[in-house]
Amino acid sequence: MEFSQRQKEIITIVKAEQPITAEKIAEIVGYSKATLRPDFSLLTMSGILTAKPKVGYLINEEFSDSLVVDQIARQKIEHVMAVAVNIPKELSIQDAIIQLFLEDCGSLYIVEDRVLVGIVSRKDLLKGALGDADLSKVPVGTLMSKMPNIYTIFDDTSVLEATRSLVLHAVDSLPVLSREIYDSEGKKVVVGKFSKSTATRQLLDILKKEF
């Protein structure tokens, strides 16, 4: 269910001040009690608020927890994504390995003018390091997985859908592309990444009340 900004404000106030009377809520938000009456009715009928005579409004904690889960799941990736580590395909395998460990990440994104052209993982670099070649002279582009064989998401993708993609495609991270630039210019410009680590942090946000 989608709530209006005013209804969200009422929920926030009740969570912080409960129990709280309708008169006090009206005073805080700057509307009359009569104006807020439809909001109170919707929120109580939806099970979000409970109203106790002579006491005031309280949050239904069971619904409140599910609301938190829903809010996190619906968040756009742009609000939770991590910084992507982008490198040119001409960078040597040796320097790419150094970059990987300096940044402590699982994958490096290969870009040209910010546009995604490939991706190289720890496993790719490990395989490349097992040969006899001089790693300081071999470009990392020789190891990368190339577009279009790379799974990506947009910055307006929901956390839920992004997490689904991680699981479905069994990958450690997904490059996050700018929806605005793609729609206007057709270019797949990398603006971040969504990884298993990021997904785990979101799960901890959901479970933190249990710790």
The CATH class designation of the largest domain is Alpha Beta
Continuous helix count: 9
CATH fold category name of the largest domain = CBS-domain
Number of strands: 9
Walk me through what this model shows:
With 211 residues, this protein is α/β, with parallel strands linked by helices. It has two domains: 61 residues, Winged helix-like DNA-binding domain superfamily/Winged helix DNA-binding domain (Arc Repressor Mutant, subunit A, Orthogonal Bundle), CATH 1.10.10; 129 residues, CBS-domain. It has nine helices and nine strands. A hairpin with a 2-residue loop joins strand 4 and strand 5.
In short:
With 211 residues, the chain is α/β, with parallel strands linked by helices.
Provide key terms for this protein.
211 residues; CBS-domain; 3-stranded mixed beta sheet; 9 helices; elongated
Which helices and strands occur, and which strands form pairs?
Blueprint lengths: L4 H13 L4 H8 L3 H13 L3 E4 L3 E4 L1 H14 L11 E2 L5 H11 L3 E6 L2 E7 H8 L15 E2 L6 E2 L4 H11 L3 E5 L1 H7 L4 E6 H12 L4
Helix pairs in contact: 5-6
